[in-house]
Design brief:
It is a single chain. With about 270 residues, the chain is α/β, with parallel strands linked by helices. It has helices at about 25-45, 55-65, 80-90, 95-105, 110-120, 130-145, 150-165, 170-175, 215-225, 245-260, and strands spanning about 1-5, 10, 70, 75, 200-205, 230-235, 265-269. The chain is about 45% helix and about 10% strand. The strands form two sheets. The chain has a five-stranded mixed β-sheet with strand order 1-2-5-6-7. A two-stranded antiparallel ribbon has the order 3-4. Helix 3 (about 80-90) crosses helix 5. It is built from ten helices and seven strands.
Length: about 270
């Protein structure tokens, strides 16, 4: 979220309200699956060495049993490889690295996927980790009251796998991050309505893996008629404003700086 003068607010890459027990995590699994499909389609149009999704699933299965060297004495595991693939879907700038990294991993060299996974995990070259991921966990567990048991997740794993053969298991078991957390979360279903407020600009990216596009539409609706103003960016990666798209930047800047609200249904490509 970004703020401007006069109470102006921009929601870029909005989560889907209300965050019911399974809707949000399953939606995110579908978002990463969509982004992976977009990557694979773009890759096959420009490269000869593109993997299929089935090959990626098979690679991850092998890494679960037999990790490969990732450089500096470290091993690329299934979890680190999945994290690296996920990181590469946050921006098209990583797509060529993903193609090369997947090919290298098939041949026993995990350094590129390891580097991508380290970027997601906030690991520096000195081996030290930033507080990014631990902070996200603390904030999420403080915000949301949902706590998932191993039995519940086991029952849901097939649904997650159906949503995404590559990310399903990973996304399902990541829900244990708050299990056993010592502080209760604040909300089961927070009210996001803002009836009577000034217009709030909600921008959704159709190719966003982490906060799928449908979240922007639901958020705009939940904010209330005349409050939530939805704008669409037809692009790839997480978020819209930092994509560098001139149409998005012009519209957002005009709103935040001058209070000019984009017309309903504005689309940037």
């Amino acid at each position: 979220m970004r703020g401007g003068g006069g109470g102006r607010r921009l929601f870029d890459a909005s989560w889907t309200p209300p965050p019911t027990r399974w809707r949000a995590p399953l939606g995110q699994a579908r978002g990463f699956e969509l982004a992976l499909g977009n990557y694979l389609t773009a890759c096959t149009a420009t490269h000869d060495n593109c993997p299929t999704e089935q090959q990626i699933v098979a690679l991850l299965d092998r890494l679960g049993k037999n990790p490969v060297p990732g450089g500096e004495g470290r091993m690329l595991t299934q979890s680190l490889a999945t994290t690296g693939i996920a990181q590469s879907l946050y921006s098209k700038d990583f797509w060529d690295y993903l193609t090369e990294g997947l090919e290298d991993a098939e041949n026993g060299d995990g350094k590129i996927l390891m580097a991508l996974g380290d970027a997601m995990n906030g690991r520096g070259q000195d081996g030290r980790y930033s507080t990014l991921q631990s902070s996200l966990t603390a904030i999420s567990c403080a915000d949301f009251a949902q706590r998932y048991t191993a039995a519940e997740i086991t029952d849901k794993v097939p649904e997650f796998r159906k949503a995404s053969p590559v990310f399903g298991d990973f996304m399902a078991w990541s829900l244990t991050q708050c299990t056993g957390w010592p502080v209760k979360g604040a909300w089961q279903r927070p009210d996001v309505g803002a009836k009577g407020a000034a217009p709030v600009l909600v921008v959704g990216n159709t190719g966003d893996p982490a906060t799928p596009y449908e979240g922007a539409r639901r958020m705009a609706q939940a904010l209330g008629d005349g409050v939530g103003i939805e704008m669409t960016y037809r692009g790839q990666g997480h978020g819209a404003y930092d994509s560098g798209n001139p149409c998005v930047k012009k519209a957002v800047d005009a709103y935040l700086l001058n209070g000019t609200v984009p017309g309903r249904g504005t689309v940037c490509s």
